[in-house]
Amino acid sequence: MENIAKNIEKDLDEVRSLEDLERVRITYLGRKSFLSENLRLLGKMTPEERKEQGPKLQAIKEHITRTLDEKKYALEQTSFDWKKDALDISLPGKKSPIGHFHPITQTIREIEDIFISMGFDIADGPEIENEFYNFDALNFPKNHPARDMQDAYWLSEKNEKGEKLLPRTHTSSVQVRYMQENTPPFRIIIPGKIFRHEPTDASHEHTFHQFEALVVGDDVNVAHFKYIAQEFFSSFFDTAIEIRLRPSFFPFTEPSFEFDISCAVCEGKGCSVCKRTGWIEVGGAGMVNQEVFVLAGYKENFYRGFAWGFGVERLAMMKYKIDDIRLFHSGDLRFIRQF
Ligand code: PHE
Question: Is the full-model pTM beyond 0.90?
Answer without folding.
Answer: no
